[in-house]
Amino acid sequence: HAHNLARRIQQDLSLLFNLDGFEHHVSASIGITFFSGDSRSPDDILKQADTAMYSAKSNGRNTLVFYHPDMQQHVDNRLQMEKGMRTALENNQFTMLYQPQYDNAYRIVGAEALIRWRHPEKGLIPPMDFIPLAEENKLVIAIGEWVMEQACMQLREWPELDYIAINISPVQLRDAEFVERVRQVMLPYEKEVRRLMMEMTEGIMIENVEDTTRIIRNLQNMGIGISIDDFGKGYSSLVYLRNLPLNQLKVDKGFVHDIDSDANGRVIVETIIAMARHLKLDVIAEGVETDTQLAFLQGQGCHKFQGYYFSHPLTVEQFGKLLKENHKVVARDS
Description:
Strand content: 15-25%
Order of helices and strands: HEEEHEHEEEHHEHHEHHEHEHHEHEH
Helix content: 40-55%
Strand order of the largest sheet: 5-6-8-9-10-11-12-13
Number of helices: 14
Distance between the termini: 79 Å
């Protein structure tokens, strides 16, 4: 009965209605819980319905969900994770790893900065386990500023490195104060800012091309480079490639992985590299793991590479040591 009633509410709300000459409709995410004269307070019952409602929203909205005790555990875990992230920022629990990027001469030219959470109880937590929640509650804005500062500090320590690339979240890019926030973080790093690369996915770039173009130009005016991350995985629109002011195109590792076994994958990679070359964009392939992949990419005119074939992500100490050894070897060989 509760299910049928909730469906009727959703159907009635979805009907078009006129408001000041414009047509509108409303959708509803509905949470339902049961109670039968037990000792729970009205507040507890409403909290359960609220928990189920937020589960309905996360399932795609305009749906209905019945409360289950597991949901509360999930909510409690999320609240604990959110509180933990705030503590992590205050207590410097986040740490950075750096995965080197090589050129054709096997010289380390850049690095991708990768955040990890060194939790005092749970150990090293990968970004996929906390960044989505950080995006929901917008903590990713503060975390992103911390990442920028860490990258610039390392650029100061590693003058032989051409650049460090950091990932920018859609939440950061949509923040009205994003450019000004970046400007404030960069104030002490006037020299290093010109060796900073920001990686953005295709999807967030084309959501609002006009605003994105304005933001990118402001960032580039500071000296920051802009890279499309995971290119080929999303929209791959030639229109935005032509119109957006970009510096680098990064071939998605999924296509690189298919080079060994998929003729279509090889054609796609070949096309992406040729397109980048004609558009005068720097191109880098990520996820390189085999000799075959590397040889194919080099044969197609790709000059920069990242992946386990060369190195796993490294701590600051490990990367610094590798960088010095690498540049000594390259200098001696040349």
